[in-house]
Design goal:
With 398 residues, the protein is mainly α. It has helices spanning 2-7, 13-37, 54-64, 74-85, 99-105, 113-135, 139-147, 149-157, 161-173, 179-188, 197-205, 209-230, 232-251, 263-269, 274-296, 302-316, 329-340, 348-357, 359-369, 374-397.
Length: 398
């Protein structure tokens, strides 16, 4: 039994090719069945698919009507969401993003709700698949990326994870060849500032000043554009809402601590106080940050460094939800590419397969069994990355 998972010879190119296509076919068949058999048939709204999409569409609607600051007003935003979905509204959902993200989603309300959700999904999926296929070129990569449960969750929730992965991965792919453009892509990620902390530390530690400057210019330009489009009042509304949003979403767990996949969320799920949870998160963040910096300052290949940064980013932030696990596509892709051009280390295939499959069960384990295992999975993946880095450094010294 140990040998089965240690070498994982059952994970081979042929099975990866076949099973990824079978999973995609199952996803498509289930979607068609749901569209046909649900009340109202194919002409009904897409709810509950895209459950987190209503605030995006409602925010776009308010902005296009000339009242962008209202996205941070609970009463006005709630009314806009009810107007969007009527009696099918899942209830009030906060718009928790800075005004820069409002600039990204601004065109959505030009289309009807279902059409906007479809376009949002297609654009995100195209960006995600295009980026992953640049890491591991080949037709099979597209099928594996499509079948990835992390991508499926993001699509079902109507979230922005696919775009986040495309920007994060795209910036890393361009880091060496086009540093200014890489920085600009990182700057566009400022709508998720918690994902930029470790990135900034790596850029400064490795003295990639042009990338850092490009990111700073990108953030400033993006903020300036949002201020020009939506006015200073919108920024004031966002800044005033931040403490309330942080308290409700993170510390009080309005989304449910079972959905928050960080160390902080795990501690709160198990009854730890806010202070203790922050302390535990701080320890994990410090360890993750030091590990990633250690890898980036060692003589190892770029795929390993990129994989460590993506994995470390999830370990470092106190707030991310299971749909953000789509970011695992990056370390899985880079580690697989590196292994295919050298050799898989013992246990590596099994760990990567577990990381690929785990998003399907992360929320269920947390909500139904009170088992928040995501931090352990991320730690295991980081250990695999450290092993590959150490092996590469040993080869370089030899």
């Amino acid at each position: 039994m140990v040998e089965i998972f240690r070498e994982a010879r059952w994970i081979n190119p042929e099975r990866v090719r076949v099973y990824s296509r079978l999973l995609c076919a199952c996803y498509l068949a289930l979607l068609v069945l749901w569209l046909v058999l649900r009340p109202g048939g194919v002409l009904a709204t897409l709810q509950p698919v895209g459950g987190d999409f209503p605030p995006f569409y409602s925010a776009s609607s308010l902005a296009l009507r000339g009242d962008p600051a209202a996205v941070y007003d609970q009463a006005k935003m709630s009314a806009a969401e009810k107007a969007t979905l009527g009696d099918k509204s899942p209830g009030f959902q906060r718009f928790e993003y800075p005004p820069m993200f409002l600039a990204i989603i601004l065109p959505l309300a030009i289309l009807p709700y279902s059409g906007a959700l479809i376009v949002w999904t297609i654009v995100g999926l195209a960006a995600y698949l295009g980026m992953v296929s640049r890491i591991v070129p080949g037709r099979d990569t597209i099928w594996v990326a499509l079948a990835f449960p992390g991508a499926l969750l993001t699509i079902l929730d109507g979230q922005n994870g696919l775009i986040t992965v495309a920007l994060f991965g795209g910036g890393l792919l361009l880091l060496e060849r086009r540093p200014w453009l890489a920085g600009a892509l990182f700057g566009l990620l400022c709508y998720k500032p918690q994902f930029g902390i470790l990135l900034a530390l790596v850029l400064f530690a490795t003295r990639r000043w042009r990338v850092a400057a490009g990111a700073a210019i990108g953030v400033a330009a993006f903020a300036g554009l949002s201020a020009a489009l939506f006015g200073v009042e919108t920024w004031r509304g966002f800044l005033q809402s931040m403490p309330v949003t942080t308290h409700l979403m993170l510390e009080q767990g309005d989304v449910g601590f079972g959905k928050i996949q960080s160390t902080f969320g795990a501690a709160r799920l198990w009854g730890a106080s806010v202070a203790m949870s922050y302390a535990m998160q701080a320890v994990v963040s410090l360890l993750a940050g030091c590990t990633v910096l250690w890898i980036w300052l060692r003589p190892c290949g770029f795929p390993v460094k990129a994989a460590s940064l993506a994995c470390g980013t999830l370990l470092m932030t106190p707030y991310f939800v299971d749909y953000d696990l789509v970011l695992l596509a990056l370390p899985i892709a880079w580690m697989s590419w590196d292994a295919m051009h050298s050799a898989f280390l013992p246990w590596e295939k099994s760990i990567l397969f577990l990381a690929w499959l785990f998003p399907l069960f992360a929320r269920v384990l947390s909500l139904l069994a009170s088992l928040p295992l995501t931090p352990l999975l991320l730690a295991l993946l980081m250990l695999a990355i450290v092993r590959r880095s150490a092996a590469a450094s040993a080869v370089a010294r030899a």
